């Protein structure tokens, strides 16, 4: 399925309803909150990504998934009815763009959820194209989107095959996707898992900004007591269909949740 009808998407976004949820979660099963909100450019692949994450959670049996197209659950305050807040979840997954409508309290709660509570944050593709006016978010995730010079078939180098989310991947692989470059990014602050093989692209192309020609694709980092996993792949819907990419997300989410109680 490549898209969500308005009715189906509404059902997915109702509190407590999602493709990977059961009436009563199995003992020990963790909970993932997926936010697919576009306050900037809207990607067609968001629907595919959300459905894929629901499928991964359901088929693995490791976590259930709550899908939302708004950031209303990003709070530790009690919510009306039986709506879940951040305290219910073990990790938050952003596939978002632009300046999300988070107030100062929500921003503080999101950082505390990761940094102080030891829970997880996961982001795909446009999670770095989000909240530019909140520098603490950029520091937490590890960098900000700074253009996409290439949208073509590229070669990806798997730099770290000891990490759970990448150990199943070959040393390099080919994929067709939109490739990001980043600002406010440094290898000193993150553990790079994958990067662009520069021999597969024109690094002199207009729009290339990084003088060091270092184009990371996926990384992790510790943020206080919590764990952050980010991968910039996912612009194209077909990327979400690839079994090895789905396994990457499964293991990345599992790793991000590992410290959460």
Keywords:
261 residues, alpha/beta, Rossmann fold, two-stranded antiparallel sheet, 6 helices, disordered N terminus
Give me the Rg, rounded. Answer: 17 Å
State the order of secondary-structure elements, H for helix, E for strand: HEHEEHEHEEEEEEEHH
**What CATH architecture label of the domain at 6-144 and 218-257 applies?**
3-Layer(aba) Sandwich
How far apart the termini lie comes to 34 Å
Low-pLDDT segments? 1-26
Task: Describe the global form.
Answer: globular
State the CATH class of the domain at 6-144 and 218-257. Alpha Beta
Walk across the major sheet and give the strand order. Answer: 2-1-3-4-11-10-9-6-7
Tally of helical runs: 6
Specify the structural class. Answer: alpha/beta
Question: Per DSSP, what share of the residues sits in E-state strands of 2 or more residues?
Answer: 15-25%
**Main sheet: strands, sense, barrel:** 9 strands, mixed
How many strands in all?
Answer: 11
Notes on the protein architecture:
This protein is of the alpha/beta class and 261 residues long. The protein has a domain at 6-144 and 218-257: 3-Layer(aba) Sandwich (Rossmann fold), CATH 3.40.50. 24% of the residues lie in helices and 24% in strands. It contains six helices and eleven strands. β1 (30-35), α2 and β2 (63-68) form a beta-alpha-beta unit. 43% of the residues are buried. Mean pLDDT is 89; it is low at 1-26.
């Amino acid at each position: 399925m490549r898209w969500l009808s308005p009715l189906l998407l509404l059902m997915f976004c109702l509190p407590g309803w999602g493709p990977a949820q059961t009436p009563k979660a199995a003992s020990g099963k963790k909970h993932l909150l997926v936010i697919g909100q576009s306050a900037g450019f809207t990607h067609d692949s968001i629907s595919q990504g959300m459905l894929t994450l629901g499928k991964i959670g359901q088929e693995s049996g490791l976590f259930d998934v709550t899908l939302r197209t708004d950031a209303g659950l990003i709070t530790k305050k009690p919510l009306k009815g039986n709506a879940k807040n951040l305290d219910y979840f073990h990790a938050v997954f952003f596939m978002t763009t632009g300046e999300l409508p988070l107030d100062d309290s929500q921003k503080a709660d999101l950082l505390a959820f990761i940094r102080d509570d030891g829970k997880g944050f996961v982001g795909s593709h446009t999670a770095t194209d989000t909240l530019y006016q909140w520098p603490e978010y950029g520091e937490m995730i590890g960098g900000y989107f700074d253009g996409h010079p290439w949208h073509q078939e590229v070669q990806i180098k798997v730099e770290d095959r000891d990490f759970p989310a990448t150990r199943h991947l070959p040393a390099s692989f080919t994929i067709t996707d939109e490739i990001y470059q980043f600002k406010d990014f440094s290898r000193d602050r993150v553990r790079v898992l994958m990067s662009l093989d520069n021999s597969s692209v024109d690094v002199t192309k207009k729009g290339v900004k990084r003088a060091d020609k270092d184009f990371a694709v996926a990384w992790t980092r510790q943020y206080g007591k919590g764990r952050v996993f980010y991968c910039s792949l996912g612009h194209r819907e077909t990327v979400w269909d690839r079994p090895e990419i789905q396994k990457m997300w499964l293991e990345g989410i599992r790793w991000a949740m590992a410290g959460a109680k």
